[in-house]
Every structure is written in structure tokens, then in C-alpha cells.
Amino acid sequence: MDRALKLKLALIFVLLLVAVFNYELHFVKSTDAVHTYGHGTFMVATICFGVIASTSIYNFALFAYMKSRQHLYYALAQLFTLMFLINLDSLFIKPFDEIFGLKSLFLFDISQVLMLFFSLLFIKEFLHTYHGNRLHELINIILYIAIFDFIFALIFSHTIVTKFIPIFIPIWLVLSEARRLVKDKDVPFYYLLFGWGFVLLVVAVEYIGFVKYTGIVFPFLHVALALDSIILSLAISYKFKLLEDDRRIQQTLLLQQSRLASMGEMISIIAHQWRQPLTFLSFSLMNIKKNTNGAEETIKEASDQLQYMSKTIENFRNFYNPSKEKEEFDIKTSCQDALKIANIKAEIKEINPFSFYGNKNEFEQVILNIINNARDAKIVITIDKPTITISDDGDGIEKKHIDKIFEPYFSTKKGSDGIGLYIAKTIVEKEMGGKLSVKNDEKGAVFQISLVPFPLSIT
Q1: Global pTM?
Q2: Is residue 141 a contact partner of residue 176, using CB atoms and an 8 Å limit?
Q3: Which of 81, 243, 277, 390 has minimal Cβ neighbours within 10 Å of its Cβ?
Q4: Quick one: CA dihedral 186, 187, 188, 190, positive or negative?
Q5: Into how many domains does the chain fold?
């Protein structure tokens, strides 16, 4: 447990001591309404009820269709949020006290605990893709406390923990820790923080006695929870879209790997069929050379062509080998092999040569995907440890497109699937632990591969 979490828990413990010391304030005995809503505020509260009920039904429907627990937990959280507001208004607000007719402190406590329980389950499921193991442990502890409070309420007709610690406190604790611990934040994550943050602010203000000190009676909590339901529904939808996009990308990568493996098998068959005739021709040329006084130059050229054909088919076979084994390989040699595979001429400048420990085929695939984008331009590859710079003298990348160039399915070329540069970036940054970037200079586009920091790089 780190210092920040210890400090937060200490503050909660102090709040608990203060609440226990003033325990009589937390056990409501009267069920008479203390506030009255006018026509306008009544309509606002009613609309909020409708919004919350709609989002609950909407997420139940999504769960039935997609079988996603995230939608189920949020639908149940919204359902018990609605129950909590109905019980709250039945106890303290006119004319809802007569409309709903629920004056049960037991239902009021139970709805709070279940609202907390399913809200935390939703947050836990939502944060699952962010790989926050410490967050999951914290949420599990609070869930066990909520279960204890629920059982306590069934036995004694009222809760004990949530009497002294308002339910917005544990939610604040989880979200504040999520904001601090999650590294790769995205738009849905900020939706979650904003939605719940707005609710927590309103609840905290009302908890310290806003109505008592100002005399303003308005369903602020209803509005906050209704807006939160809309914002979090958007967050769930957005997150689902990102997960679906990621799934499509993974399917594309798997399909490409399958194609490479199939091509590798085909080329292996071709190599096997070529090897014997090439060997026979090579021996035949040697015999011709022995029995011929002239034409040595022609025989040498023919022999060189045979060696070139043999080397080419071997290069193709090695490149399409789907092996994920890592090895030490020379950067310049790999760049040369990639250029041969693509049948592209390029100038290679070696300022500070180096080797690297990784998957040679994947690195060559990166080089291929980059140089294929500049096939019609003059290409210069500069190797200067620890970077490989690939530049061309083309027209460069349009400013409006340069920030999207590594996004999946984005391409400015007709007939392109827009996946090549995304794959290149994925290999460099996830498989090789490096960095792939692009910029324009006065001549054209400049791609830079940086292979540091990477502990397995070898000089």
C-alpha cells in the first residue's frame, strides 16, 4: 500500500470516527416529508426518473443482445439508483411522498447498498481492460464490505457501514485511485471520471447541508444522476467500439500472419522443386567449363545467375517463415534483404552500425511496409545506432494526414487496406520495445525507428 492510498484511508477513518461520535444524526427516525417541490422542480425530477429508467432498460437490452456483463452491471446499478431516488423522495419530498407511498427506511438502506454494489461491479468490469490489478483488489475489498452491510440489513433492518460512510466515499476512493494508477487513459475512461465526478461533487455538496444553509430546494441529485447515466452510457458504447475495432485489427493481423504462413509453405515447395534442377545445372556448368577452353566469362555469368536464383528463393523462404524465434541480426543486412524481397533499390548509409536481438522477419516486415509507401521515390536508409532513418524525395505526407498515418485502415492510396504502417508501428513498439515516428522534411517523408530503450539490444 503506497503513501497516497494510506492518506486517503486515513481521511476516511477520521470521517468514520466523526460519524460514529455523532451517530444519532445518521439514524433517521421521522418519515415525514421535509421539502416540497414546485411544479417546475417536480417536472425536472420526473424527467430525470424517466432518463434513468430508460438507460437501465437500454443497458438490459444491450446485455440481452451482446451478453456483456458490463451492460448488466450498469443496468442493475441504474435500477437501484432509481429505487434509491424513489425511496429518498418518498421519505423527504412532497408530493412524491404521496405518489410513491414508500416510507421504508429499510428499502432506503438496501437500495443504497445495492446501488453501491453494482456500481462498483460495473466500474471493475469497465476498468478490466486497463489492467489495474491493484484497483481490482481495492474494489473487491469494498464489495465484501457491501455484502456484509447487505446481510446486516437483512438481519437488523438497517445497514451499519453505509450509515456512517456515505456510498459516494468508496466510489470516490476507487475513481481517484484509477485516475492515479491507470497509465494508458482513453476517451471512455475520461467519460467515466467526468460522469461520476460530477455526481460525487453534487452529492458531497448536498451531504454537507446545501439545502439547509441556502434554502434552495431543487433536485440537483436527480439531475446529476440522470446526466451521469447518459454520460456513462456513451462511455460504454465508446469503449465497446474501441474493443470492436481492436478485435477487427487483431483478426486482420491474424489473417495476414496466416497468409504469410501459407506463402511460406508455397515458397518452401517451390524451393524444394528448384533445388535439384539448380544443383544439376550448376554441376553441368562445371563439367562444361572443364571441357571447354573458351567462353569462361559466359559460364561464370550463368553460374552467378544460378547462385542468385538459389539465394533469392532462400531469402523468400526465410522471410515468409512464421517463426517467432528471436536472434541477433545485423540491421544493415536485414535492410538489404528487405530491399531484395521488395525488388526496390535504395541507398544505405551506415554511420554507426549495430546489431539487434529480436525477430529478424518482423523487422524486415517493418522495413518492407515503410519502403512500399515510397516505392516510386528515391529512398535513403541511414543506420546510426540506435536509430534507422528511412527518407525519400517524394511529396511527403500531407499535414492533415500525418497524425493519422499509423491508424489502422487509414490510407491515402487507392487499393490499400491501410494496415501496413499500423502493423509496422505495432511490431516496433510492442514486439521490439522501440519507437516508430514520421515527419516531413524539405525533401519528403522521414520515418525513424528507434530501438532504445531495449535491454536486449546487442552491439
Answers
A1: 0.63
A2: no
A3: 277
A4: positive
A5: 3
